């Protein structure tokens, strides 16, 4: 996020130089103090390090004065704004609020709060609209956080909260994008919400790109966004059907080469889930062998080669559960 927050027209080389000089100063501060003390005792005047020539010399002097004045930390207000903003861009929201108690203007910088909003909630309808006068990304962050907490208690109330604040619009694709790019939503509530809003689920599936992905890895990525239910049932079957159709759509060449179809992928997905349970469950003493998996899978998917099914087994055996 820091690279997007430079506010003065510095080129990449100057930005890197400023960051490196700050890091060098913080790492060597104690050593420099000892050296300055020894130099004063010897009666000679101290000089800045040789790597701080040109633009860096001014930064060094600012850092040096700020360090002597505060003794504990560098006063960010004495640094160039682009450098101070970059330092603060690595803070989370709580730490940034605390920093705002010390450096009020820097801690309330809109670029910082905009970065926090978009890095945590990657898509919101409000991002693409003309922002009203007096709009504050800091206030938006608090509303997004409040809405996420509400969603994790009751999904429909959370979505209603977002809509009441103008953060989201009631459109399946907008809701699907919000869910796809957000990692703060409770998986159980999200599962219940998608089970009721199948129109949002349909749009959410289309956001996945499974091109050139191995089938088990694609299934893992799918269940990372759309969490699998804890028990087998109609919802799990719906998810696998939608995944199978989307996987074939994204990989037409692979489908032709291996003779796959949505029905064949559906069978393979169920086989992978059952194999995952068999290999990872401590309650299963006699684990399924590779030969047994190939034989059982080939009975249901006749057009799939033994080598391909064997690679599926190896992937689960080495990497683990597809729906963990």
Number of helices: 17
Q: Please tell me the overall pLDDT.
A: 83
Which regions contain 5 or more consecutive residues with pLDDT less than 50?
A: 1-10, 44-57, 66-71
Distance N to C terminus: 30 Å
Tell me the number of strands. 0
Identify the overall geometry.
extended
Radius of gyration: 28 Å
Overall structural class, as computed from helix and strand content, comes to mainly alpha
Strand content: under 5%
- Summarize the helix and strand pattern as letters: HHHHHHHHHHHHHHHHH
Instruction: Estimate the helix proportion, in percent.
Output: 55-70%
The profile of the biggest β sheet is:
none
Your description of this structure?
- By secondary structure, the chain is mostly helical.
- Helices cover 66% and strands 0% of the residues.
- The protein contains 17 helices and no strands.
- The chain has helices spanning 12-42, 55-70, 81-88, 93-102, 104-107, 110-120, 137-153, 155-164, 172-180, 187-196, 198-206, 215-225, 234-250, 252-258, 262-280, 290-300, 306-319.
- Helix 7 (137-153) packs antiparallel against helix 8.
- The longest helix has 31 residues, at 12-42.
- It is extended, with a radius of gyration of 28 Å.
How are the SSEs ordered, and which strands pair?
Elements: H1 12-42, H2 55-70, H3 81-88, H4 93-102, H5 104-107, H6 110-120, H7 137-153, H8 155-164, H9 172-180, H10 187-196, H11 198-206, H12 215-225, H13 234-250, H14 252-258, H15 262-280, H16 290-300, H17 306-319
């Amino acid at each position: 996020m820091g690279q997007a927050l430079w506010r003065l027209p510095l080129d990449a080389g100057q930005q890197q130089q400023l960051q490196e000089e700050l890091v060098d100063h913080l790492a060597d501060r104690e050593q420099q103090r000892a050296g300055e003390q020894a130099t004063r005792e010897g009666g000679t005047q101290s000089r800045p390090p040789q790597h701080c020539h040109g633009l860096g010399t001014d930064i060094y002097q600012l850092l040096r004065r700020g360090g002597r004045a505060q003794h504990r930390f560098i006063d960010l207000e004495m640094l160039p704004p682009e450098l101070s903003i970059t330092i603060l861009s690595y803070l989370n929201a709580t730490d940034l609020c605390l920093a705002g108690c010390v450096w009020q203007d820097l801690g309330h910088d809109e670029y910082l709060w905009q970065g926090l909003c978009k890095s945590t909630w990657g898509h919101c309808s409000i991002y693409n609209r003309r922002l009203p006068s007096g709009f504050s990304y800091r206030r938006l962050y608090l509303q997004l956080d409040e809405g996420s907490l509400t969603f994790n208690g009751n999904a429909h109330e959370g979505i209603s909260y977002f809509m009441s604040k103008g953060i989201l619009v009631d459109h399946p694709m907008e809701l699907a994008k919000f869910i796809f790019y957000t990692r703060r939503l409770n998986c159980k509530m999200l599962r219940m919400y998608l089970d009721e809003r199948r129109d949002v689920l349909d749009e959410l599936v289309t956001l996945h790109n499974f091109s050139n992905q191995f089938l088990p890895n694609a299934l893992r990525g799918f269940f990372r966004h759309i969490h699998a239910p804890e028990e087998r049932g109609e919802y799990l079957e719906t998810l696998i059907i939608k995944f199978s159709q989307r996987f074939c759509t994204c990989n037409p060449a692979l489908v032709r080469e291996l003779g796959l179809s949505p029905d064949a992928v559906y069978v393979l997905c169920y086989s992978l889930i059952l194999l995952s349970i068999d290999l990872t469950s401590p309650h299963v003493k006699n684990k399924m062998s590779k030969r047994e998996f190939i034989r059982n899978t080939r009975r249901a998917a006749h057009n799939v080669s033994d080598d391909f099914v064997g690679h599926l087994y190896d992937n689960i055996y080495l990497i683990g559960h597809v729906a963990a």
